[in-house]
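Researcher: Structure prediction, please.
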Amino acid sequence: EETVLPIIAPTITADFNSIKHLMWYASASYLTSCASQLHWNHVYTSHSPNGSFLVAIILLGAGSIITATASSTGPFIAGRIVTGLAIPGVRGGCTAILAAASLGEKRTKITGAMNIASGLGYLAGSVAAGVVTDQSPGRWRWSYFMLLPLYAFTFVLILASLWGRKRKTQQFATSFMTKVKRLDPLGTILLLVSLYLAVAGIQLGSWVGDSFYILLVASGAFLVLFVFIRRRTHQDPLVPAGVSGRRTMNMAFLFSGCMGGGLVLMLYWISFWVQSVGGPRALRAGLGTLPLAVGMFISSAPLGMVSQRMGDYSSFGMIAAVVLTSVGAGLATINNDSTNIELEKWIGSLLLFGLGIGCGVQMPSIVASTVLDPADVPNAVGLLQAASSLGSGVLFAVGQAVFAKTAQSGIQEENIVAYMWGRAPVGTTPDVKFNGPTEDERRTYEEALKNTVYVIVAVSCVAIVPAVAMAWRRLGGKREALLFPAARGPRPPRNGWYV
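Model: Predicted structure follows.
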């Protein structure tokens, strides 16, 4: 599901003729995932894992249906919001069911099978979306319809596993209203509004200018209100003090956000470059993401064994991720020839970037399991996923703002989408022949796309800060600091600040 939208986003932008709303197509789902991630943890601890997983699948299917049937930007974004609400539930459900159903060495084997299935879905989603969209521009909707049988098949399998099983009601004896209060719907809404206002400010900063500061101040106000209400109502902290009080985990959150944001921005950049500068070819854009996916798959498989042999998580995984992603993104900026789009020139750079992402995305979870008490690890893993979603939503908004500001320097706003597909400018009469954008306009558009890649390079380089700032500890055995020792002193209280 997550690899479909980057491939068909240029087609949707042209279909709805709205470059302004491009940011919300992606950011809406990522920001909603971030805000709802930890609440799904409460759902799985207070309800049956299988039943909660079924609800998440239903939400995911509903989001796909709304997205596929949308006739304008508004319903499409609404579908993405519903999808973003469901994605953390599906991810958390896989982990919860795995923890409840498998024991011993079976858990490792099933985890490996899940990673392989995830990689295959990553590869198949982008290629299938490209094949469907290339048949006809209006067929991008089938990219979401084709996901529904997969959801239905999974739903039936989980439902069959529940058939005839006695439910253990004693584990879930809490009243319904207590469960609703634990989910904190008001707090979720306030947090979502805060995130949406911040991203809207980033977007409008490139189009309007003065609204940027107003929206950021409003975002901060809603965030303060969110923290205030949670403290006054004595809610359990979303981020326990045992997690937020550790420098290593704070650095892991930042690293996870950088890796997630860089990956999403690279996926969308590949698709827009191939389909706009090189011509509307969704399948070719899908094939262009394969080196990235292959690199992620190659590096993620042996990462655990190599890190275990080397004895620490930083020297190999995190620093290698920074080096590979920075070099890969940097090489992508020099292989841009608009007159002859050759994906062969990108294989090396995208493969390097994928290798770096594969190294980097798993390391924060390894960090959490190494430096935290076992009781804090589930919440920490959920927080890391939320940080990745937040980084994806915010950095995509930054990349789109950079693209828009550069493009508007030489192309009128209403003609950006038209020039993406070689269409006549807005207001051109039918009897006037359109020979395409001028050389200056074409170069302006190329420069806008290239500047977006510079954002990826910058984010990849920034990731070196959390990589070297965290405490380097050995995996297993004695928890011995290698380079930067962790802060000494008593452990922070478990019920501390609400972050």
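Model: Residues 11 and 137 are 6 Å apart (CA to CA).
Researcher: Thanks, that helps.
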